[in-house]
Design brief:
The protein is about 40% helix and about 15% strand. By secondary structure, it is of the alpha/beta class. Strand 4, helix 7 and strand 5 form a beta-alpha-beta unit.
């Protein structure tokens, strides 16, 4: 009887609040089509489509200046960039300690470089790899630590670097979520040996597809350039086995226009984040992330944690009802990478090794956020969440 009543009330919520058009978890910030067409005309007239063209060179220089970094290489996408980062550091065997709470690419690049991922639990406050858990995973085969700045929240970079220095390890950061993020006045991209970025269409900053590697030295940047261009040094010399990781002119032109928009996009997302926080502050069972002191955030995601006991519904239940209301949320990141069939047999994938990561994966839900999402939609989404809570507690 209670189940039938619950279903009826859920139907009432959907009938009352359902959006006519889907509200997606994110939407790309599209530049002016008129401006982009002018870039396309120049590309057509020059017939220079790829291979370090003029827009590629301009975008690489302007992006490095915007981010406040010296050595930046553009890539066709963030996955290839991260794949090359390992090759640039000559890591192609052994083990790398990493987080299971991330997008599959962060782990898959290790497999493609014939490296065994060793999964380390996460900090329950930041959802990033927990430095206090890293050293117990270090063995003679450990080559590096691969951290992910999840949702743009910086890893504990100082603690991780101290561990790496003690044990002679490289540090690589997947900064796919961390465009424009700073600790104090210093770009998050300056930490570690190499940082990899993604400019996929789902990201805060996009070049349709695309990515970049930020390295420490000129020599390292030159090695990365060779690696992303088949190992070609000049028309007659190939210095080693490389890959085709170059960004083309169409992506670079799109990225140049996005650079004109990204600061306003971050400001818009910050305002929407603050609205979400205020509207959800007193909803039992819903926990939101707060800003970290001394960090410049980019507000690229809006994750919440759902406590089923206090809220009255599980994360999956909330996700399902919101989907029925035409609100597309995402369980970022569920399931954990460690649970994939290709990695689940590793000792570090044991559930007992990853209690915090498993809790987060089973409770986290990312709500829609993008610069052009209007405040009325957020008010409606949070009203739905409140109504679901009241239903769950009735």
């Amino acid at each position: 009887m209670k189940k039938a009543l619950t279903q009826k009330f859920c139907q009432n919520i959907v009938g009352q609040f359902r959006f006519d058009e889907p509200v997606y978890v994110t939407r790309p910030n599209m530049p002016s089509l008129e401006k982009y067409n002018k870039y396309l005309e120049n590309i057509w007239n020059s017939a220079w489509l790829t291979n370090n063209g003029p827009y590629h060179r301009e975008f690489e220089a302007k992006l490095a200046a915007f981010l406040g970094v010296e050595h930046l290489n553009l890539f066709v996408n963030g996955t290839i960039a991260l794949l090359v980062a390992l090759q640039a550091l000559r890591i192609n065997s052994g083990e790398v300690i990493t987080t299971p709470f991330t997008f599959p690419a962060s782990t898959h690049v290790l497999h493609w470089n014939r490296i065994q991922p060793v999964f380390c639990d996460i900090d329950p406050k930041t959802y990033n790899i927990d430095p206090n858990q890293i050293e117990k995973h270090i063995t003679p085969d450990t080559k590096a630590i691969l951290g992910v700045h999840v949702y743009g929240n910086p890893c504990d970079v100082e603690a991780i670097q101290k561990i790496a220095d003690r044990h002679g390890l490289h540090v690589i950061y997947d900064a796919a979520h961390a465009f424009g993020v700073k600790i104090g006045d210093r770009s998050i991209l300056e930490y570690g040996d190499i940082s990899a970025m993604s400019f996929h269409a789902t990201k805060l900053f996009t070049s349709i597809e695309g990515g970049a590697l930020i390295s420490k030295t000129k020599a390292q940047a030159e090695r990365i350039y060779f690696l992303k261009n088949f190992g070609i040094a000049d028309e007659e010399i190939v210095i080693g086995p490389g890959i085709n990781g170059k960004m083309n002119e169409f992506q670079a032109a799109f990225g140049l226009l996005e650079l004109e928009l990204v600061e306003q996009e971050i400001l818009n997302r910050k305002a929407l984040t603050q609205l979400y926080r205020s509207l959800l502050a007193d909803v039992p069972g819903i926990t939101v992330m707060e800003d970290i002191p001394n960090v410049t955030h980019n507000y690229s995601y809006f994750p919440i944690l759902v406590d089923p006991q206090e809220f009255g519904f599980s994360r999956d239940g909330l996700h399902s009802i919101l989907r029925d209301c035409n609100i597309v949320t995402r369980k970022y990141f569920y399931p954990l990478c460690s649970s994939y069939s290709c990695y689940s047999a590793y000792p570090s994938s044991d559930l007992k090794n990853l209690p915090c990561a498993n809790r987060a994966a089973n409770k986290v839900l990312c709500l829609p956020i993008y610069g052009k999402l209007n405040t009325e939609n957020i008010e409606r989404i949070t009203d739905i969440i409140r109504s679901i809570h009241r239903l769950g507690r009735s």
